[in-house]
Each structure stands twice: as structure tokens, then as C-alpha cells.
Amino acid sequence: MKGIAVLGSTGSIGLSTLDVIERHPDRFRAIALTAHRNVERMAEQCRRIKPSFAVMVDADAANRLRDALSDLDASPEVLSGAQALETVAVLPEVDYVMAAIVGAAGLMSSLAAARAGKRLLLANKEALVVAGAILMRAARDNDATLLPIDSEHNAIFQCLPARFNREISQSEDQYPGRGRNHAWENSGVERILLTASGGPFRDAPADSLATVTPEQACAHPNWSMGRKISVDSATMMNKGLEIIEACWLFATVPDRIQVVVHRQSVIHSMVQYNDGSVLAQLGNPDMRTPIAHALAWPERIPAGVEPLNLFEIARLDFESPAPEQFPCLRLAYRAAAESGTAPVVMNAANEVAVAAFLDRQIGFMDIASVVERSMDRLPAEPVDLSGLEQVLEVDRQARTVAKHCVSETVP
Ligand code: NAD
Ligand code: MG
């Protein structure tokens, strides 16, 4: 029986995680659930799942949750504040931590889980983007098992030989390294083919995007996700973040990662080998597959996902992304090449810009412009590996600069 902390249990990944956990009561028990401020959904989850701990980061929401659960005989211990996320991530009875908080807000708890040597199921890609060097090193030094939940990275993990994944997790030779290291050479891995659906605007002419609404941007054709990642998918910043995420997880450089637009979202990514083989992982677009994979790994368990019907799908298409339509993808390549703190600035500015877009303060195409101007104003510095202070400080500065760029944008 494995004890699990689900960080971000009220979100899209959180809900899918609880769905898989509840299918396997003989294997998994949710020890702790956490949320920002959605009291109603957390109260419902506590009644159903009966965790030992429930965290509401917002103090007022925590009080309301205590009230909402006051009739329960055995109600969970309710904690509040961002620090409580780390507290539950390192509990001795927690074996696995699902890191499903959105944005850089998930960084500290993901890092705490890695430092405590937990199995870290990482959906929170932003943590790797802003502090990949520190997080990967913490996982290696503390024997934490890091399993990717992002569907593409989970697919790549599945298409790589087990030996590769073992070597990478113990390797000193990490990104931004030479891009060719022992694990790559020994396994004959040539390239990673990172698939992208292209989002809801893949067929829209670039000049029609200025007037896109948040509702249109959040209506993803293949996946149902939280609002921030839905907008990131529409700008393709999501793919940009995923390139950087892949560099860290698989110890490589952006040159060895090719983005392939594949509109059906059936192939979740591929690995190309030096003998001409390309291995792919296929499945219906449902996050319960990577979640179940990482929960049970190296075994397999049912995830509640419909089996793939290839005759219904009938065809698989592949295209190259159009760079003029997706400036965020270009900015992510720039951040990956500059490395150091450039991805921190890019990520923080993107979070601010996406929130401003969702709030209707700026237009869809202004998102890339806010990110670019923020990156221009805060040049990359080398990352200080001794702790998170520098990264957190740059993240704060970038948010201030990006908010300024947003205010300049408003007519
Ligand atoms: P979501 O917005 O649906 O849920 C976010 C969760 O984080 C909620 O539980 C919320 O309460 C919590 N949260 C938000 N802000 C917080 C804060 N400041 N402090 C503490 N908790 C906070 O997001 P999601 O779509 O589930 O995505 C979660 C993460 O997984 C993101 O990093 C996203 O990029 C990644 N991801 C999601 C999907 C998907 O299909 N949804 C796929 C791949 C990767
Ligand atoms: Mg993804």
C-alpha cells in the first residue's frame, strides 16, 4: 500500500489522479490533498477520500474548509499557507507525491519531495523550467524517483530503454551539457520527436489571432485541462516549456528535440534511434494513462481509459509548426539557448501575461510581446546552484517587469 500526497488535487490533473487512485484502493491511499482556495471541491474530496491532511494555501479558505467539515467524526487535519505544501510532501507516511500545482507556485513543494527522496510524479513542468538544475540534482542526490506526468515526457520515458532512464537519473552529465552523453550513446538514441496538437488556432491565419477571447483560447480541440495550460497550448508556449522540460528530464539540448505538429493527439511523442527505428507511445488523449503509468511503474494497472480504436482514428497527420504563428515557441528556443535564468524570466513573464489575458487586460498576441519585452529587460545570468534564492528573486523581478509591460500594453 502506497501513501500519496496529491498537490493540486482540485485541478484537472488532481481530479484525474484521484480517479486512478480510487480505482485501486488495494494499492494506493491518498494521505494528503492540497488546493489554493477551492473550498467546495476540497470539502467534497475530503468527504469522499478521507485524507489525513487537507491543505488550503489561502488562510481564509482553510477556515471555511474547517467549518464545512465540522460535522465529520474523523475530519482531516486542515493546514494553511504555502509552507504546508512542503510539510505534507515530506510526511513519512507519504511514498509518492503528485506535483500537480500550476506554475512556479509548485516549485518549493516539488523540490521538498525530491529532497525527501520520494517518488515524484511531476506534472508541474514549470518547476523544471525555472529550477531544472536544482531539482534534478536534488532528485539524484536523494535517490528520489522522478517520473514525468506530462503526456509527451511520459511517452518519451516509455519509449526509452529502462537502462537509459536509470543512467540519466544518476548522471552528472546533465543539461545544458554537451547534448551527447553516455546514456544517449549507449542506447543509440538520436532524437526526441515531441508531438504537439497545435492547439485551437493551428489553422487560424496569424492576423486573425489578435481578437481571440479567453473562452476560445481555453477550448482545446483534444484535451480538457486547466485554464493556464490551455492558453499555453494555444500560444504553443506549452510546447516551449516542454522542450526545456525534456532537456532536463532526458539530459539533452534543444537541437536534439524536434517539435512535430500532430493534430490527432494520439501519438504522445517518439524516440528516434540510430538504426532507423522510431518508437512511439499511442493512446487516447486522457491524462489518466500517464498518471496510472507513473503510479504503478514498473508495473501496469487499469486507468479507466477507453482502449484506442485505430479504425475510428483512421489517419495520423504530421506537420512542421509555423514559426510566424507561434512567437512563444521562438521565445522558448531563445530562453533554452541563453539558459541560466532566461527560462525563469520567460516562465514568470508568461504566467503574468496569461493571467492578464484571462482577465481581458491584454490581447492574445500581446502574451508573446510581454514575454519578449520582459526577457529583453532582464538578461540571463548563470544559475547559482547552491539554493533557490537567486531563482526566486529573478522570478519576483520578472513578475514586476512583466506587470509593467502589461500596463504599457493596455490602451
Ligand atoms: P489547474 O489549474 O486545473 O489546477 C491547478 C491546481 O493547483 C489546483 O488544485 C489549484 O488549487 C492549485 N493551485 C493553483 N495555484 C496555486 C498556488 N498559488 N498555490 C498552491 N496551489 C495552487 O491546472 P492543471 O491543468 O491540473 O495543471 C497542473 C500542472 O500540470 C501544470 O503545471 C500543467 O502545466 C501540468 N500539466 C497539466 C496537464 C493537463 O492535462 N491538465 C497536462 C500536462 C501537464
Ligand atoms: Mg504536455
Describe the protein in words.
With 411 residues, the protein is α/β, with parallel strands linked by helices. The chain has a domain at 2-149: 3-Layer(aba) Sandwich (Rossmann fold), CATH 3.40.50. It has helices spanning 12-23, 39-49, 59-68, 83-89, 107-115, 125-141, 151-159, 162-170, 182-187, 214-218, 227-235, 237-249, 288-296, 310-313, 327-338, 342-358, 366-377, 389-409, and strands at residues 2-7, 28-35, 53-56, 77-80, 96-99, 119-122, 145-148, 189-196, 257-261, 267-273, 278-282. The strands form two sheets. It has a seven-stranded parallel β-sheet with strand order 4-3-2-1-5-6-7, with helices on both faces. A four-stranded mixed β-sheet has the order 9-8-10-11. α2 links the parallel β2 and β3. α5 (107-115) packs parallel to α6 (125-141), α6 (125-141) runs parallel beside α12 (237-249) and α11 crosses α16. It is globular and about 60 Å long. It binds nicotinamide-adenine-dinucleotide and magnesium ion. Residues 150-152, 242 line the site of magnesium ion.
